[in-house]
Amino acid sequence: MEKYGFQTPNVTFHRGYIEKLEETGIKNESYDIVISNCVINLVPDKQQVLQEVHRVLKHGGELYFSDVYASLELPEEIRTHRVLWGECLGGALYWKDLAILAQKIGFCHPRLVSANLITVQNEELERVIGDCRFVSATFRLFKLPKTGPAERCQVIYNGGITGHEKELIFDANFTFKEGEIVEVDEETAAILKNSRFAQDFLIRPIGEKLSTCRGCSALESKDIITDPFKLAEESDCTKSRCPPDVAGSCCGTIYS
């Protein structure tokens, strides 16, 4: 309050459970963003978590969250293992199930932001885990209003977001540089049009001429990365090219 000059507090605290937000008095469509950091994997009913978050988000709002995901559906031996549960591995969701749950509830397809492989360095735990792999990944889930069919668009970022004037790293697939024309798919266009980012972009359908601006360059469309394991492996390949004296900083999270 003192640093930013608020006369009254602009923060309130509610004690409760992420899958039972209604019990804390949080109303429908009352928030623009919900943030979670490695919490959902500790909740048995993950669908209920997403349903509650969807309920409290405004249209155009998003769930921005990091969590642990598994490369396959976990067997009971892993799900009931006390140490693996405590290390946030036993409750990990099979990564493909996230998209199924999200779209069932009404979110857009998950937007992958970043991912890092998790290495387990413990012989006993490695035996229990077997062929299963784990990754720590950050996703964005947007709640959009029901509108007509979306269409591919060309967009230009105007650099209006404080701290991101030169470029906006939106997710693992799209980085928008100020003044540059970027072709985006239907869902990305719908998100930019109907979220808090709308004021920061000039958005036009493909084929409609955009005004020329400094530094503009049309980009070709590309395959969208949705697999966090693929992204993490690509990231590791990039990091492996680091000079030997800084290679230690490229290691992923290690549980022992």
From TrEMBL:
Residues in Methyltransferase domain copies: 4-99
Keywords from the UniProt entry: Acetylation, Cytoplasm, Methyltransferase, Phosphoprotein, S-adenosyl-L-methionine, Transferase
Location(s) in or outside the cell: Cytoplasm, Cytosol
Record bears the keyword ATP-binding: no
Molecular function GO labels: arsenite methyltransferase activity
Keyword field contains Kinase: no
Gene Ontology CC: cytosol
This enzyme's EC code(s): 2.1.1.137
Biological process annotations from GO: arsonoacetate metabolic process; methylation; toxin metabolic process
Catalytic activity line of the entry: arsenic triglutathione + 2 [thioredoxin]-dithiol + 2 S-adenosyl-L-methionine + H2O = dimethylarsinous acid + 2 [thioredoxin]-disulfide + 3 glutathione + 2 S-adenosyl-L-homocysteine + 2 H(+); arsenic triglutathione + 3 [thioredoxin]-dithiol + 3 S-adenosyl-L-methionine = trimethylarsine + 3 [thioredoxin]-disulfide + 3 glutathione + 3 S-adenosyl-L-homocysteine + 3 H(+); arsenic triglutathione + [thioredoxin]-dithiol + S-adenosyl-L-methionine + 2 H2O = methylarsonous acid + [thioredoxin]-disulfide + 3 glutathione + S-adenosyl-L-homocysteine + H(+)
Family: Belongs to the methyltransferase superfamily. Arsenite methyltransferase family.
Function description: Catalyzes the transfer of a methyl group from AdoMet to trivalent arsenicals producing methylated and dimethylated arsenicals. It methylates arsenite to form methylarsonate, Me-AsO(3)H(2), which is reduced by methylarsonate reductase to methylarsonite, Me-As(OH)2. Methylarsonite is also a substrate and it is converted into the much less toxic compound dimethylarsinate (cacodylate), Me(2)As(O)-OH.
Protein name per its UniProtKB record: Arsenite methyltransferase
Organism of origin: Lynx pardinus
Lineage, broadest ranks: Eukaryota, Metazoa, Chordata, Craniata, Vertebrata
